[in-house]
Amino acid sequence: MDNNNTIAGWVLAGGIAALGFSILSGKYFHADKSERPETMGFVIEGVESSDDGKEEVPMSMMLAKADVAAGEAVFKKCIACHTINDGGANGIGPNLYNSLGKPHGHVAGFAYSDALTSIEGDWNFDNMNAWLISPRKYAPGTKMTFAGLGKPEDRANVIAYMNAQGSNLPYPEPPAAEEAVATEEAVAEADVAATEVAEETVEADTAAAAE
Ligand code: HEC
Fold this sequence. Notes:
The chain is 59% helix and 0% strand. It contains nine helices and no strands. The protein has helices at 2-35, 40-48, 59-64, 68-74, 114-117, 125-133, 135-138, 152-167, 176-210. The protein is rod-shaped. Mean pLDDT is 80; it is low at 42-53. Heme C is lined by residues 77-78, 80-82, 92-94, 96, 99, 104-107, 112-113, 115-116, 132, 139, 142-146, 149, 158.
């Protein structure tokens, strides 16, 4: 009986170890296949050029997964003040057709606030994202009394929808640093999994030895 339990213990331990290895190899395989950059020099460059890390997922990454139809639904929050059809009338806010890529305050004849028009640059994807996170923070004193969209997916989807109304700009390339981080995360996860397996194996061994 004692012997049987010991054998059962070892079989269990072996099974856990095998399972662990398959999880582990799956993670490494995945990391290798889709996330590992071609050359390692590339990774270092990417990490060095990464931004200050304020934004967890860059808008370029979000846009790659964005859904225009879902964005149209999000835009319902804007239609109280904005039209977005070609030649649409201004309301409380300006018509937003073809607004991406245009300067701040792009509709001639709309009475924008100085807070908005005094901002340099144009409505690129990152600026539009920052604006939609919080119009008040982006342009303190703006006339757009809209709190902002808290969810990154909502912003990505609505920006994709807006882009599809006239602008049709190509999406920015996701930064390389992100790939490096993703690979690092996958490896770290695999390490944790390996540690867990090792611990479980020790536990199983201990249990088996005790019996
Ligand atoms: C309560 C009314 C209101 C709502 C709701 C609203 N906006 Fe606005 N929006 C404005 C006003 C007013 C301005 C002009 C701001 C200024 O001049 O400071 C504006 C300006 C803008 C601009 C700048 C356009 C340009 O020509 O530079 C964009 C882009 C914009 N809104 C997008 C949105 C989106 C997207 C939503 C929905 C998620 C939204 N707005 C919701 C009132 C609104």
